[in-house]
Inverse folding.
């Protein structure tokens, strides 16, 4: 336990330091990416369902929703790469 406390003090000396801010930003981005991944799995499942049901109109709507997914997804992934 003492080793972990020492390691944390090395990584994040104070709450006001820039390392703490970067750690928080990375944490938020990772949570957001996880939420988007779960949402993507749901959307892909719905797209497959419309293909099986042969509903072309709903298929086009679902694909448009998938395209809209690309904007926040690429922003979050770029943010993770940046930090």
């Amino acid at each position: 336990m003492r080793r972990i406390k020492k390691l944390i003090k090395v990584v994040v000396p104070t709450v006001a330091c820039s390392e703490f801010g970067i750690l928080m930003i990375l944490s938020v981005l990772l949570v957001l990416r996880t939420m988007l991944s779960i949402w993507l799995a749901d959307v892909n499942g719905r797209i497959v369902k419309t293909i099986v049901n042969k509903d072309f109109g709903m298929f086009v709507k679902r694909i448009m929703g998938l395209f809209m997914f690309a904007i926040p997804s690429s922003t979050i992934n770029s943010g993770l790469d940046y930090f």
About this structure: The radius of gyration is 20 Å. Residues 2-82 form one domain. DSSP finds three helices and no strands in the chain.
